[in-house]
Amino acid sequence: MSAASPFRERVARALADETLHVALGRATGQLQSRRDVAFASLDDADAVRDFARAGKLAATRALDRMLEEFERRLIANGVVVHWARDAEEACATIVDIARARGCRRAVKGKSMATEEIELNAALQAAGITVVESDLGEFVVQLDRDRPSHIILPILHRTREQVGRIFERELAVDYTPDPAELCRIARARLRDEFLAADIGITGANFGVVETGSLCIVSNEGNVRMSSSLPRVHVALLGIDKLLPTLDHLDAALKVLARSATGQKSTVYVSLVHGPRRAPAEVAPEELHVLLLDHGRTKVLAGEAAEMFACIRCGACLNACPVFQQVGGHAYASIYPGPMGSVLTPVMRGLADHAELPQASSLCGACRDACPVKIDLPRMLLALRRESVATLPQPLALRIALRAWSFVMARPWLHRVARRLARAVARRAAPDGWLRRAPGLLSNWTATRDLKAPSARSFDEWWRNRGAPR
Length: 468
Ligand code: SF4
What we know:
The protein has helices at 7-15, 18-40, 45-61, 63-76, 87-100, 112-116, 119-125, 135-142, 159-170, 178-195, 221-227, 245-260, 295-300, 314-318, 320-325, 336-347, 364-368, 375-389, 394-407, 410-427, 441-444, 457-462; strands spanning 80-84, 105-108, 129-132, 198-201, 205-207, 212-217, 231-237, 241-242, 267-271, 285-291, 432-433, 449-450. The chain is α/β, with parallel strands linked by helices and 468 residues long. It has 2 domains: 7-296, Rossmann fold, CATH 3.40.50; 395-462, no CATH class.
């Protein structure tokens, strides 16, 4: 799906894609019910969520001090620390690390930050072969596709489609059986792990008190990527810090439950530094690259609370808009409600003004969020900013002015109401309008519109009689 096509076209294409609906329906429904069951197994889920949130917000409030302390501890652990302001600097730094050490083959763990900076293209342009080792990302790479979900990159694919991709790209017999597909991928990837001389991963959390990276996965591929090659580079955003291991404990409990409905992710790796003794299975060098790439803009505005985000994907699964259109419609690495906040703030509201509108503001994302981020508040703030700073369509401006003119004059409002009721009596004898004029036709194009009630609220209020 082309990222350059306008938002409405992408949405229309997604809505017309029956296979996408099958894939989205299967995955989001299952993820939500598994999440609910997993949270029920926590003794005091609310307290754990609050403590995880408190940890993220404490790191955010003292970010400058936390980052300096984290860097100091990493260096003390034998880690080489790098900083990057943007994607260009980050890619150049990783390419330089690889080149300086003669690395020709890279194996990667799933990392949204590396997707964000388009690292694979930069490595390939520098003559370095890169292979994705997460099963979903492996399929994305084979299919020259883009991830559509921050946890499940091929949420938009059915297992039948994955079977066809393997048949086409790997010259194997077609099978839609997930176990067989995993076996094929595992056989291919094992050689890649052994041949790679540089492993590149993200990190779920950076723990300030110990200078450690915490990386979770369900497939074991991250552990292989971060320990078998002689060089390991971990790229993490400056929003990934947690002050203490106690905070990490709480964050891991809510992350696994929210992301995949598990009590714990299968592999939780705590990386403290490079190899210290010859017998250790660890890389000779560990590099940590701390990335800004728009994050300080988030920190400076109304969306600073997004620094608490642990990238679990629960808000995507709960969102009725995401459930209908999937991740590619957002044309951003970060789709769904969290992406509709992050993308405009990090990459510019003018180019992404439609994203905060892609929400019903039902609040399902806020309820699902394990760290209780108030996403609807931020979506509304972005809508406000969009109206205040960007040109709005002429029809919308005229309609809103007319609306505000009528609403400010009660007598005119009463006349308009009577008129609307009279029209509705003729056009909607059963109480439902099937076709409405002007801007309202956007609504009736896909659903019926309730006709105005026979009695308005203020009429009912005035005639409700003496309070009992
Ligand atoms: S905003 Fe909340 S629910 Fe959404 S990805 Fe971040 S932590 Fe998860």
